[in-house]
Amino acid sequence: MRRPRHLAALAVPAAAALVLPVLMASPASAEPTNANCGTQTGDTGTASWTDHAELERELTGLEKRSDGVLQVDVIGQSNQGREIWSARVGEGDKVILVQSEIHGNEKTGTEALLNLLRTMSGRTPQAQEWREAVTLVAVPKMNPDAAELDRRGNDRSWEEVVEDFPQLAGSQPAWNYYDRARQGDDYAADPGFDVNRDFHPDLDYVPRPADFPGSSSEPGWYIHPESQAVRDLYVDLHGEFGSVDTFVDLHHQGPCYEVEGGDDRVTMSLSGKFVDIGNHAEYAEDYDLDYSKQLTLAAYDELQRGESPFGNLTLYPQDIDLPGTALGSFALNGSGTVLFEVRGQTQSWGAKMRGQLVSTVERGLVGMVDAVADGSVEQADPARYDDIPETVR
């Protein structure tokens, strides 16, 4: 495994068989008797998910077996010194950047990305076609400190932030700072931040005291090593390719949201809209909401195809303006952006339905990669996006 960041083009050998697991599930309206719609099950299923040490072994093994097709790099270190890895496969000029576990208790995306990396580094004709058309860059565990603690926030105090940015001495702590006991997580003893509010559309932004404590509707600050690592990767890819065509962020949501107009439980919410461009006019020339909608439709259509067990899909709420998220910031920089919000978190669902939910994320990603690779994503009518039913919370 290479330690320094290196983004050279990859050689492409011949490929081998693509197998996507599709696990049949009972209708979502028929909840299993052990379903939990509260905040704690007592069974977080922690042992069933890939932890930091296991991820290193998985990525190292994939890289070795790929015969140079897949490249693994360390793009940064977490606040507690854990490596943040990226894995890159493909040599096409269409760049797809995908990250998972920006919230450490949202783990299905990591498993889905590992499966996708295995598929794309394989020896099938399909995998080779994808590699020729796209460059996939995955960050499977963006926030490893939070992942090890199985919680939303990272492991970093406000005092540590001020040590790194002395100009913030005397400023109010950021609004997204967790420093008290919250939902079973001992933030009082071990504080942290929601890293998914630490992004800023100005990729050269330097933290200023006047911008604190900020709010959910304002940009973030790049005060954390985790967000800095992804920002730097994005900038590197932009410099190499001229743009990052697609950015996908893999999340979880509540376990028991319903589909608009019915009582079926939502399997996953999708979205391509994260900012109100009217509030960010300086970025309007680069912003491409239609392409984000087309990408979303590629995932949605794949999950709706045939007898898919993943049919209960909704739109994430659209009346939001979140420039401090990775999705919002990168959308304002011209990327097509898509949010996956699969149902449940480790605290509310444990390992129950794990296989179906991982397969849901994986299949949606495959639909998107395939549509980007063959160009069909650009033929989709963005107006169909608005026909996707909305989530009822």
How is the secondary structure organized here?
Blueprint: H1 52-65, E1 70-77, E2 83-89, E3 94-100, H2 108-120, H3 125-133, E4 134-139, H4 144-149, H5 158-164, E5 177-178, E6 181-182, E7 185-186, E8 192-193, H6 225-241, E9 246-253, E10 258-259, E11 268-271, H7 289-304, E12 313-315, H8 326-332, E13 336-343, H9 346-349, H10 354-374, E14 391-392
Parallel strand pairs: 3-4, 3-9, 9-13, 11-12
Antiparallel strand pairs: 1-2, 2-4, 5-8, 6-7, 10-14, 11-13
Signal peptide: 1-30
Pfam families: Peptidase_M14
InterPro entries: Peptidase_M14 (IPR000834)
Share of β-strand residues: 15-25%
Quaternary organisation of the protein chains: single chain
- The level of helicity is 25-40%
What is the CATH fold-level name? Aminopeptidase
Regions with little confidence, pLDDT below 50 for 5+ residues:
1-36
**Strand and helix order:** HEEEHHEHHEEEEHEEEHEHEHHE
Q: How many structural units, i.e. domains?
A: 1
| CATH second-level architecture | 3-Layer(aba) Sandwich
User: Which strand order do you get reading across the main beta sheet?
Assistant: 1-2-4-3-9-13-11-12
What would your notes on this structure say?
The protein is of the alpha/beta class and 393 residues long. It has one domain: Zn peptidases (Aminopeptidase). Helix content is 29%, strand content 16%. The protein contains 10 helices and 14 strands. Strand 11, helix 7 and strand 12 form a beta-alpha-beta unit. Helix 2 packs across helix 10.
